[in-house]
Amino acid sequence: MIRSATSPLFNALKRNYSNVAPTTKLFINGQFVDSKATQWVDLHDPATNNLVTKVPQSTQAEMDAAVESCKSAYELWKNTSVLTRQQIMLKLQAALRRDIKKIAANITLEQGKTLPDAEGDVMRGIQVVEHACAAGTLLQGESLQGITRDMDITSYRVPLGVTAGICPFNFPAMVPLWMIPLALIAGNTMLVKPSERDPGATMLIMELLNEAGCPPGVVNVIHGTHDAVNFICDHPDIKAISFVGGDRAGKHIYQRGAASGKRIQSNMGAKNHAIVLPDADKNAALDSLVGAAFGAAGQRCMALSVAILVGDAQNWIPDLIEKAKKLKVSAGHEPGTDVGPVISPQAKERIFKLIESGIKQGAKCPLDGRSVKVEKYPNGNFVGPTLLTDVKTSYDCYKEEIFGPVLSVISADTLEEAISIINSNPYGNGTAIFTTSGNYARQFVHEVDAGQIGVNVPIPVPLPMFSFTGSRGSFHGDLHFYGKQGLYFYTETKTITSLWRKGAVPANSVPSVSMPVHN
Ligand code: NAD
């Protein structure tokens, strides 16, 4: 039985979106349908732990029907003109902008992040929709006239077929929108499996896709966990998988999907370091550290989780603590909240254990968020901003991705030493430097081995005209999400060599049996 949720946000959503609660539906062939699942995942509001909705573990028949729907829609969709697809994206963009607050409210309810942060989550996705609208240029192939006499070569970018997207919990709108717009604009259909922990935003996006006139079957949504993921990895009709999530699932999907010949892009975990040099603008650097370490309760793959304070910047720890202490911890929909709850009681427990292990291994904890109490929400999964100092790279709290509001502080004597710490870490998602020296910034940019670098920018997530270029342990694959690479991922190249001879071939011509070289 579903207990009634008490949050006014929940009631507002229930009124507006029948497809979100009390059980999350599937989206098959353009229809929201009740699942016949026998197993369900309970989804709780992280601020209260009240039950919000039940998410089905889709049955085999439902998953088969979803792929079949993608497959039959593909024939129509790939032959739909680029301009028509673009019109649908433009309508989707307008609808998303109109409904941004409603989607954000759903994210806050299911995921816990603050309302302004949830709006940022949707807006980052909208920007990818806007990028997809440039398909007329982005999808162009290449051509060369007269490569040899009367011969031309043209290449087209053609869709792959049925593609699939598997999403994490931490960006329930942005990540599906990293995938859906670019897969669709290129002429593919897509099967989406949102995170079982917060699928509501995806379901709202499906309502808007219907409203925008996207034909039934172009996108289907199934729910579930491991079985649904393995179904996607193994299905012979699925040609490509976009995955965003943790290392374990990402490596598994990369291997299992590749075994059945699929193209895969797998964005995984991270440990993002910031170097603070003593010549940095102190307040700007400390504000950036606090925002990027504790915002979204540290549950961003681009969160700054390690600060390397170089030389005299080590004296700034008391000021860092003062700034972090001012953050308000509460439910994400409460005005003025800076740090919402983490996703689950299990996540909270894991964060507590990693803090504890850091202290046991020798770190100091001058700001301990484990004692935080939010009186109005006694059952929420709250962890306050936490600072671990004197951290060594051998500690578990350094080696593990904590994915909570915990900033580990390491000291270094020189920029070179700081860069070498970053380059020795297996992850390569993002990093940042805070300095007022162009020469140190340039040295850092060229010597550091990470895929996304901020110079006085704490969260250097590229805008969608570029690509999300995490590297090393943070990414498996070749072509990255969004930007030009995103479209390359969802297309393959068809190259046509044409000979339209001017004049007839003479009767005494001799056939050539050697490899044609056309020169
Ligand atoms: P997760 O790996 O637990 O889940 C991601 C998806 O994989 C979900 O849909 C889930 O159902 C499925 N899944 C989980 N475990 C699985 C398994 N063992 N086998 C098959 N499928 C499985 O990740 P999460 O906790 O939802 O998200 C947080 C993680 O995602 C963090 O590690 C974060 O760094 C990472 N992340 C990375 C990026 C990036 O772009 N690099 C962006 C966002 C999040």
Secondary structure blueprint with pairings:
Elements: H1 8-16, E1 26-28, E2 31-33, E3 40-44, E4 51-56, H2 60-78, H3 82-98, H4 100-111, H5 115-132, H6 135-138, E5 142-148, E6 151-159, E7 162-166, H7 174-185, E8 189-193, H8 200-211, E9 219-221, H9 226-234, E10 238-244, H10 247-259, E11 263-267, E12 272-276, H11 282-294, E13 304-310, H12 317-325, H13 345-361, E14 364-367, E15 386-389, H14 396-399, E16 406-412, H15 415-424, E17 427-428, E18 430-434, H16 438-447, E19 452-455, E20 471-472, E21 475-476, H17 483-489, E22 491-499
Helix pairs in contact: 3-5, 3-8, 4-5, 4-8, 5-7, 9-10, 11-12
Bound molecules: nicotinamide-adenine-dinucleotide.
EC number: 1.2.1.27
Subcellular location: Mitochondrion
Subunit structure: Homotetramer.
For the largest sheet, list the strands in their spatial order: 14-15-16-13-12-18-19
Low-confidence stretches: 1-12, 14-20
Estimate percent helicity. Answer: 25-40%
Largest sheet data? 7 strands, mixed
For this structure, the CATH topology of the largest domain is Aldehyde Dehydrogenase, Chain A, domain 1
CATH superfamily label of the largest domain: Aldehyde Dehydrogenase, Chain A, domain 1
Average of the residue pLDDT scores: 95
Total domain modules = 2
User: Which CATH class of the largest domain is shown?
Assistant: Alpha Beta
What Rg do the Cα atoms give? 25 Å
Overall morphology: globular
The name of the CATH architecture of the largest domain is: 3-Layer(aba) Sandwich
What gap, in angstroms, lies between the N and C termini?
A: 76 Å
Query: Which ligands does the model contain, each kind named once?
Result: nicotinamide-adenine-dinucleotide
Q: Could you say which structural class the secondary elements and strand pairing correspond to? A: alpha/beta
Number of strands: 22
Count of alpha and pi helical runs:
17
Strand content: 15-25%
